[in-house]
Each structure stands twice: as C-alpha cells, then as structure tokens.
TrEMBL record:
This is Putative gtp-binding protein. One of its GO terms (biological process) is positive regulation of TORC1 signaling. Belongs to the GTR/RAG GTP-binding protein family. It comes from the Eukaryota. It is found in: Cytoplasm. Its main location: cytoplasm. The keyword rRNA-binding does not apply.
Amino acid sequence: EKDLHYYQSCLEAILQNSAEAKIFCLVHKMDLVPEEQRERIFRLRQEDLNRLSKPLECVCFKTSIWDETLYKAWSSIVYTLIPNVQQLESNLEQFTNIIDANEVLLFERATFLIISHCQRKPHHDVHRFEKVSNIIKQFKLSCSKLAAQFQSMEVRNSNFAAFIDVFTPNTYIMVIMADPTMPSAATLINIKNARKHFEKLESAKGSSSQSVGKAIVPRDS
C-alpha cells in the first residue's frame, strides 16, 4: 500500500509538470516467484499499474538481477528515448552492408546498453549483448583504477575480428567482421568516416536524404 501511494504521488507530480512524460515500471525480484506463476503474477501487477496510471500510459517489465531481463528492460527504455531511431537503424543497416560486416552494434556511452544493432548473419548466443556490455564495463572500471581512459579495443582470432570504438558523443560502436584477415586500418577508417554522419543523426539535425555511403569506403575498393 505504501509503494502504491508513493507511485500515485509521483504520477500526480508528472501530470502537473510533465504530462507528456513516458512512464516505465520494473516489476522486480521475479526470480523469487515460482517459474510456473511468474507470467500470471506479472500480468496481475501490470493490470494494477495500468489502472493506477490512468490517464497516463505505463510500460511494464518483469526483471531480476539474476538474468538478462534487467539489461533488456533498460535497453528497451533507452531505445524508446532515442530521437530519429528509425532513421538511425536504417543508416546503421546501410553502413553494415557497405563495409560487409557480420554485425554492427551501437551502445549508449555511459551505461553500455544496446540501443541499436544490425545483424546480417544469425548468432546462436541471444545474450551476447549483455555479455559484451558487462565485459567492457569491467574493463573500463579496471582502466579507471589505473587512471587510464578506455577509448577503443580490437579483438581478433581465426574466426572473426571485432572492433569497439568511440563513435558519437553519446555512443560506442562495435563492428564484427567475419574475415579475420581484413586490415584493421580499413575498418577503423570506415568507422571514422561514418562518425560525422551519425553525429548529425544523433543531434536530430541530419537530413533524411543524406546517404551514409558517401562517407564509407566499400570493402572491395
């Protein structure tokens, strides 16, 4: 009852000061609910929150710190707050095809939450975004302890080459190339050349008629 009263107080403040705000509710600690009851319990909580939120709309997520649900929830929330998201995804797909990458991902710079990605070939690990995010965040933490600042990383083996680099003021980019013999300089130049174009999209000033291909060197060149 106390939580619901606090929630309604927050809603009243939102209605008065920011009626257009988006509302997200995380129904947490779902791991404590028996698995066969989770969906039913979540739907009941969701119905209660939707009823209490009227006339505002509420988007609910069931979450737990012990699995990928919390990461997915926050990524979904960040995704809905991105301006020009459809144009961003379209240009990311174009960029991926031009450089012949297997996959390209955009991460939010501070949290390393996934905000957009383009995948040209299926991948068996559906939790790879969360894994990559956690690895990079731990590496950044290690760098900060040594008074160093993380900017970029390259990982290469016999199966692929992966590049992570600062992209725009608010994002990092990760490019996965299937050809491990591809020179690093070619991929890094393409990332650099695409950076200004995506910065314009991020600031919502880019023109929809612009083509990312103008800034990119195709792989066969």
